[in-house]
Design a protein that fits this description.
The complex is a heterodimer of chains A (about 575) and B (about 525). Chain A is about 65% helix and about 5% strand. Chain A is mainly alpha-helical and about 575 residues long. Chain A has a two-stranded antiparallel sheet with strand order 1-2. A two-stranded antiparallel sheet of chain A has the order 3-4. The longest helix of chain B has about 35 residues. The chains are: A mainly alpha (about 575), B mainly alpha (about 525). At the A-B interface, helix 5, helix 6 and helix 7 of A face helix 17, helix 18 and helix 20 of B.
Chain lengths: ~575, ~525
């Protein structure tokens, strides 16, 4: 099976699917989304087959393809995966069909006085995004990586800008410009690498394996590292380069938000591991303390801001920034355990936060508001939804038994021996995580019904229908939301005050999860639980690649793969 | 006194020039001797035959390296490559000129240019289907001048070419059918400032002649090597550069650009933005590399500073524009800066990627910007083209295809990968970094990010905003504009995805003779 170009197929299939969907007339929306689902499931199948064809103990890069692309620049269309990249491809394969299912009944934000817009473009952009995301992880040519890295912005820009919330224009442009600025600075470093390779190897190249052999002057390394690092730190995002994410995460349609924090932002941390560390080992070692300061500051700062958020999507975005701090801590601690934990974290965060975003989206679809204070007492009416919400939240705060625990634990025990102070500070983030997750859960799901769940006896009761879900109309401004006549005035600072239901109001009927929604959340719930108790397959998949990366920067891998915490086996694979 | 000997001319090597100038002369005769009713189709045909013939001739001549006309003209790789580029851009521009389906009066050119704007006669003629067909021979002369400009191996020929390409452009700028006053203002402004710039060039020429004793580029180089650079020569070079940079609309010699681009008929603007840029940079490259390549200290700091100024001015002032044509004008100024970044990439002993990269960038930029201006001609309201940005709001809902194409061109101008703009930028930045110009490239990257903002703003307007109730309509283009848009869009895509062949061509053509 190894001679099948799996990676090329994984790029081409969604791209062709996107073209096919885009060619459909706007009225054929149903066909468009069916096609999108079919294509994304096919890509999932391809991802699984790719994993089967991959030998974790084999060469570092496998399933390689290389075709000369632009000979004058020394650029090859070179693809190949190591365990880390493959885990990201699996994540893409899983998340995209889930996102298609979660967005099944989304509609664009209605505009007064104008006919409803078609969602066909949404499905086309989504598939194109999938194709480019696969490319960015599968590229082994730095130039090709850069091309995918930048091209990826365009579909996401249109997903946010065309199908997002009320403030979508601002969010889309901010997203694009931040990423583009980072990318352009990286371009300078990419060209710089080429020039160095030209002088050392006699022929300029962008091939990762060749560039890894270069002996770069430490000062030049620092400059080149800075270019790559800035791009990845904006992408990942690390504090203080993070300010675009809460806006984009809040304004993006749920499907876009899941892919944004679930996969797109992982390109940043993936880039640290794949490019910053192996290509610039000296600079990485010298500058690691500064990166760790940013990482740990992000863990605490973003968690504190998350506690203070009133908008659920913004809250989830801030939690992601905190999680990216953990991943960066794991990567720049320079131990095999911590780096393995960071890679697992990248995968698990995609699953857990993806589920959290999707569940939040389901709540919003029922209530039409993103504000926490507009909800209360949902659990009594939607027990299933509440259960999944809780599970997603617990996975997000890394409770033992969920997948995230494994990765967070590995990061912390792995980082402690080399970076005790940073690790101890980072643990504070765990406490804050419990605070923001549980507070949100409690306010939305428990207590007496309030906010949008209350309607006047004679008021229009058009909110509830679960499958009627507008993305997140009304973007939360309280007074602006039509139909929310039952929200009473409250005193300043009284956001958490328990509100008595006005006498004339009745509680809106809210449907629990529909069959489609159950089908959407089930795979993610299953992954959270399975990987929570048995993460070993994933660890085995990524360990060789992590060890290879660590040996690139001169860290002795120690010879054994880390065992999953709590498991009784030694975990050694050789 | 002996008889003056006629210089030896290699007619074959001059075939591209002969085609275009021949077409221009025939065009003038047609204007004089054929009835008005058949003039338009005949003129279009002649102009197209001239430009396409010139393009074919450059293809056939590929590989030629000779100096002819007693050393005054160099027919070499860069000259032929750029002549071919100019011929293609010229042919596409002529097609844009000939569009008759968009304007209700069936042409974007005025019926009679000499009638005072706003007079009774002018208003009568506004809806007349008469058209000033001199536009075609004028364009042919301009194209011929541009092609001569890139082959000029002699400062005097260079000056003659400069005038031959400029004078028709001054006139063409004033031929807009709508907004006559704006158009005439553009023509006068362009003429006055252009004449001023020509004077600078001429003065520089005189000083360089004084310092080196020759106007032949190769002799200048020899003189520079043997005698070293004198103050006289450096000042002369500076003045020459000023004259050329004016044509290339490089800041701080750019002040005419937005006004002229806005006032001129859009098809002419497209022509100026694309072809003039190619010609001007062709001359800049030849002057700096051939005559002063061995003494690059004389121009490197100057070009370095001009590149930074142009990128910053173009990107920053572009942010404040509310008119599509003015915005594209500032974009053209910023791109002139990026092109100069490529010019910096001249390595020691004439090596380095600078020449090939700059030539490749000229191809990509010319085709993309031509396409973008071509789309501007489609968006119209009752008063002609609707160029105010606010009128473009919600265009994606009126015409998804036009909005998609425009977004594609704008993303290419912003330099997003998988478009020709990115490959072009990459080529010039690589050339500059190889020459050690790190700070310049970082400035260029920051300027690219700033410029991306105003390109994106148009995309935002077209896609994410609601259309105004009385917004413009999108005209259905006739065959000529459709061809132009198809060719430019295809080129923008192909040069972004598979640029290998053209890059190789530029690389192999990047050797000057003389």
């Amino acid at each position: 099976m190894t001679d099948v170009p799996w990676l090329v197929l994984m790029i081409v299939v969604p791209a062709v699917g996107a073209a096919a969907v885009a060619a459909l007339p706007a009225a054929r929306e149903a066909l468009a989304r069916q096609l999108a689902l079919a294509v994304s499931l096919l890509v999932l199948l391809l991802a699984v087959l790719t994993t089967v064809a991959f030998d974790p103990g084999g060469e570092r890069f496998q399933l390689t393809t290389s075709v000369a692309w632009i000979p004058d620049f020394g650029v090859d269309f070179a693809l190949g995966v190591d365990g880390i990249a493959l885990s990201m491809l699996l994540l893409i394969g899983v998340l995209v069909p889930v996102v298609v299912g979660a967005s099944w009944r989304d509609t664009p934000l209605p505009r007064p006085g104008r006919p409803a817009r078609s969602m066909t473009a949404f499905w086309a952009w989504l598939l194109l995004l999938e194709s480019l995301m696969v490319g960015v992880f599968a590229a082994t040519d730095v130039f090709l990586f850069y091309v995918f890295f930048e091209a990826m912005l365009v579909p996401m820009y249109f997903l946010i800008g065309s199908f997002g919330g009320a403030n979508r224009q601002y969010a889309a442009v901010k997203f694009f410009l931040y990423s583009l600025l980072g990318g352009l600075v990286m371009l300078a470093s990419v060209i710089g690498l080429y020039v160095v390779s030209n002088s050392q190897l006699g022929e300029g190249t962008f091939a990762f394996d060749a560039l890894r052999q270069l002996e770069i002057d430490p000062n030049v390394q620092k400059l080149l590292f800075a270019g790559f690092f800035l791009a990845f730190a904006i992408k990942a995002p690390l504090v203080p380069f993070h300010t675009w994410l809460p806006d984009s995460g809040a304004e993006a349609p749920i499907g876009g938000a899941v892919l944004l924090v679930g996969v797109l932002d992982k390109v940043g941390t993936f880039g640290f591991l794949r490019y910053c560390l192996p290509l610039f080992p000296d600079a990485s070692r010298d500058l690691a303390p500064w990166v760790l300061v940013l990482a740990v500051a992000g863990i605490i700062y973003a968690a504190l801001l998350a506690v203070g958020q009133s908008d659920m999507k913004r809250l989830v975005s801030y939690t992601s920034i905190a999680h990216f701090g953990f991943i960066a801590l794991g990567i720049f601690a320079f131990t095999t355990e911590a780096a393995t934990g960071a890679v697992l974290y990248m995968f698990n965060h995609g699953i857990a936060t993806g589920l959290l975003f999707i569940v939040v989206g389901m709540v919003i679809a029922r209530g039409g508001s993103r504000q926490i204070r507009d909800y209360g007492g949902l659990a009594a009416r939607t027990p299933l939804l509440a259960g999944v919400f809780l599970l997603a939240g617990l996975a997000s705060l890394a409770l033992p038994g969920t997948n995230s625990f494994v990765s967070e634990f590995l990061v912390l025990i792995g980082a402690f021996p080399t970076r005790p102070v940073f690790t101890i500070i980072a643990t504070v983030g765990i406490v804050l995580a419990a605070l923001y997750v549980l507070l949100m859960y409690q306010r939305v799901m428990h207590g007496p019904p309030r906010g949008v769940l209350l309607v006047d006896e004679d008021g229009p009761a058009d909110h509830g229908a679960a499958d009627h879900g507008p993305a997140d109309h009304g973007a939360g401004e309280h007074g602006a939301r039509g139909g929310a006549t039952a929200v009473p005035e409250r005193g300043a600072g009284g956001a958490t005050a328990v509100l008595e239901a006005p006498a004339r109001a009745r509680v809106l009927a809210v449907r629990d999860l529909s069959g489609r929604e159950i089908a959407v959340v089930t795979p993610l719930v299953a992954l959270i639980l399975v990987l929570g108790v048995y993460p070993q397959p994933l660890i085995d998949l990524v360990s060789p690649a992590v060890e290879a990366t660590m040996s690139d920067i001169g860290v002795d891998p120690g010879g054994s793969t880390p065992a999953a915490p709590g498991s009784t086996g030694t975990g050694g694979t050789d | 006194m002996g008889a003056i000997e006629a210089p030896d001319l290699s007619y074959a090597a001059l075939a591209p020039l002969l085609f275009v100038f021949g077409a221009a002369c025939v065009g003038v005769l047609v204007e004089a001797f054929t009835p008005r009713s058949v003039r338009h189709p005949v003129q279009v045909t002649i102009a197209l035959v001239g430009t396409v013939g010139a393009f074919v001739a450059t293809l056939l001549l590929a590989g030629t390296e000779e100096v002819t006309a007693a050393g005054a003209l160099a027919v070499d790789g860069p000259a032929l490559f750029l002549q071919g580029t100019i011929a293609v851009l010229g042919a596409l521009s002529v097609l844009l000129f000939s569009e008759r389906a968009l304007d209700p009066a069936r042409s974007a050119f005025v019926a009679a240019a000499a009638v005072p704007a706003g007079s009774v006669r002018d208003r009568e003629l506004a809806t007349s289907e008469r058209v000033q067909t001199e536009a075609y021979p004028l364009a042919s002369f301009a194209i011929g001048g541009m092609m001569l400009f890139t082959a000029a191996n002699d400062l005097l020929i260079m000056f003659v070419a400069l005038e031959v390409l400029s004078l028709p452009l001054y006139l063409l700028s004033g031929l807009a059918r709508r907004r006559r006053l704006l158009s005439q203002e553009a023509a006068v402004k362009y003429f006055l400032l252009g004449a001023f710039a020509s004077a600078f060039f001429l003065y520089g020429l005189a000083l360089v002649y004084g310092a080196t004793g020759s106007v032949r580029l190769s002799d200048v180089r020899v003189a520079v090597v043997t005698e070293g650079g004198s103050a006289l020569m450096v000042i002369g070079l500076g003045l020459l550069v000023v004259g050329l940079m004016f044509k290339a609309s490089v800041a701080p010699f750019h002040s005419w650009t937005p006004d002229v681009y806005q006032g001129a008929p859009t098809a002419v603007t497209a022509f100026m933005a694309a072809a003039t840029k190619v010609a001007a940079f062709g001359a800049v490259l030849r002057l700096l590399y051939v005559a002063f390549g061995t003494a690059d200290w004389t121009w490197r700091p100057l070009v370095y500073a001009l590149a930074i100024a142009s990128m910053v001015v173009g990107a920053v002032l572009g942010l404040t524009q509310t008119d599509v044509k003015r915005m594209l004008a500032y974009s053209s100024i910023a791109h002139a800066g990026f092109l100069l970044t490529g010019v910096i990439g001249l390595g020691p002993d004439g090596t380095g990627y600078g020449l090939a990269a700059t030539m490749f960038y000229l191809v990509t930029y010319g085709l993309t910007t031509l396409g973008a201006f071509g789309l501007v001609t489609l968006v119209r309201d009752g008063d002609g083209e609707a160029t105010h940005l606010s009128q473009w709001a919600g265009l994606a809902q009126r015409s998804p295809l036009v909005a998609a194409l425009m977004s594609f061109f704008l993303l290419a101008l912003a330099g997003i990968p998988l478009t020709s703009g990115f490959t072009g930028k990459f080529a010039v930045f690589r050339a500059a970094i190889e020459a050690g110009a790190w700070p310049l490239v970082v400035t260029a990257l920051v300027a690219s990010a700033i410029a991306a903002f105003f390109y994106l703003r148009v995309v935002v307007l077209m896609y994410f905003s609601d259309p105004a109730p009385d917004g413009p309509t999108v005209g259905v283009p006739g065959m000529p504009t459709t061809i132009v848009l198809a060719v430019t869009a295809a080129a923008t895509l192909v040069l972004g995805v598979l640029p290998g062949a053209v890059l190789e061509l530029a690389e192999s053509a990047a050797v000057f003779v003389g």
